[in-house]
Amino acid sequence: MRLVLGEKGIPHELVRENPWEKRDEFIDMNPAGETPVIVEVETKAVLIGSQPIVEYFEETTEKAPMLDGNARARAEVRRLVQFIDERLYGDVVAPLMHERMMKRLVSRQAPDTGALRQAMRVGNNYIDYLDYLLDNRRWLAGSSLSLADFTAAAHLSVIDYLGALDWRGHQQTKDWYSVMKSRPCFRPLLGERMENIAPPAHYDKVDF
Amino acid sequence: MRLVLGEKGIPHELVRENPWEKRDEFIDMNPAGETPVIVEVETKAVLIGSQPIVEYFEETTEKAPMLDGNARARAEVRRLVQFIDERLYGDVVAPLMHERMMKRLVSRQAPDTGALRQAMRVGNNYIDYLDYLLDNRRWLAGSSLSLADFTAAAHLSVIDYLGALDWRGHQQTKDWYSVMKSRPCFRPLLGERMENIAPPAHYDKVDF
User: Fold this and answer.
1) Is residue A76 a contact partner of residue A27, using CB atoms and an 8 Å limit?
2) Burial code of B25-50, b = ≥16 C-beta within 10 A, e = fewer?
3) Which DSSP letter does residue B196 get?
4) What are B94-144's pLDDT values in tens digits?
5) What is the predicted ipTM?
6) Contact B119, B95 (CB under 8 A)
7) Where does the GST N-terminal domain lie (chains A, B) (predicted)?
8) H or E segment to which residue A177 belongs
9) Tens digits of per-residue pLDDT, A36-89?
10) Less Cβ around it within 10 Å: N or C end of chain A?
């Protein structure tokens, strides 16, 4: 979401929300209790969920199209976004965050090393699939840079931050990720740090 | 998906796929291994996933708009669709199908009555939320019939088929569902039966 706002040059102020706190005011805004939520300053209108928000700004701004091409090309972008946001997230990012972040910050338990190994093993298969796509296409969804690239790069950055990415054998995805990292919209995110969890030394470097 | 194809009058032939069989040919078509998948007869082009498919037909057909209104109205439709497809599905429909269908047809176990009760209790909360929306709006997402209505009606029909819907205290949603059921696109679906699992007597009746 933040990468898309950055690419499109939409001014915004970040407000931190910890969804696991289930604040009443936040649930009133979004019954699903999830981020991202955008509140328009002037109208107080609320926009909810990364896919609806991206489609909204895609319809209302010209700059940095995220769903370029014809209807079929857009269907491929949307397929990949859903695949990454649901499957890669559910199988890899969510378990890694649970073991490495939530257990440390919220429940103060040690991570389950078996669960970590499993998430990294499955993550490797997903990156094989990205390698395969990039063997055949300029960008993940086809000939245009699209929401699929920003979505995948965002999730990979979380996996990489948590030290769970082994780039060996993934030259195609590594080259593509280096290009994504060097975009101006990516720089502010790479400069941020989680509380008490340091990323590996290569995390914010464009050459890694 | 089938309700939308029916509303838009898009001719199609149904091909049964049991995703849990993980057929190689199906995984080759859709690496996520999930239905729905549409193959265009003439071009052999493959469209994957209900949200990308609906957006595709929304962009390429005029009839029966599913995302009517302005960008903000569309954001609300997409928010509700995601909420229903992910949360209502994950919290209610998936556990019910697991307990009542998958355990019977695939693993031949008895359902866990605690899990069933929990799914029905949570399902009741979701229908309270639909009641609340319909107290304030003509249709679920606003003044126009939209994809949110078809998505919710499809999931409710599965819950109802599995005998897990208690309509008492839900007059608004009941009236709305009766209207949805009476649409021609809904009739063929209400006539179908799962193997070895009969729905309650009221399941396919418009007055229930």
Assistant:
1) no
2) ebeeebbbbbbbbbeeeeeeebbbbb
3) T
4) 999 999 988 988 888 999 999 999 999 999 999 999 999 999 999 999 999
5) 0.91
6) yes
7) 1-65
8) helix A171-181
9) 999 999 999 999 999 999 999 999 999 999 999 999 999 999 999 999 999 999
10) C
Instruction: Compute the radius of gyration of chain A from its Cα atoms.
Output: 17
Q: How far is CA B200 from CA B122, B191, B193, B203, B204, in A?
A: 20, 13, 11, 5, 9
> Residues B38-91: pLDDT tens digits?
999 999 999 999 999 999 999 999 999 999 999 999 999 999 999 999 999 999
For chain A, which ranges sit under pLDDT 70? none
**Residues on chain A touching B53 (C-beta within 8 angstroms):** 75
Q: Which domains does chain A have, with CATH numbers?
A: 2-60 (3.40.30.10), 71-190 (1.20.1050.10)
pLDDT in tens, B9-20: 999 999 999 998
Nearest residue in chain A measured CA to CA from B60 = A71
Asked whether the predicted pLDDT for residue B196 surpasses 90, the reply is: no
A40 to chain B: closest CA residue: B72
- Indicate the DSSP class of residue B194: B
Rounded to whole angstroms, the Cα distance separating B60 from A70 reads: 10
Lookup: tokens for A106: 């919220």
Exposed, middle or buried, A108 (CB in 10 Å: 0-12/13-18/19+)? exposed
- Helix, strand or coil for residue B48? strand
**Test the B interface: residue of A1, A38, A56, A132 with most B CBs within 10 Å:** A56
Torsion on CA atoms B93, B97, B99, B100, rounded to nearest 10: 120
Cα B18 to Cα B59: distance, rounded to the nearest angstrom: 29
Give the number of C-alpha atoms closer than 13 A to the C-alpha of residue A185, restricted to the C-beta side: 19
| Cα(A114)–Cα(B195) distance, integer angstroms | 39
Q: Give the Cα separation of B56 and A76 in Å (integer).
A: 10
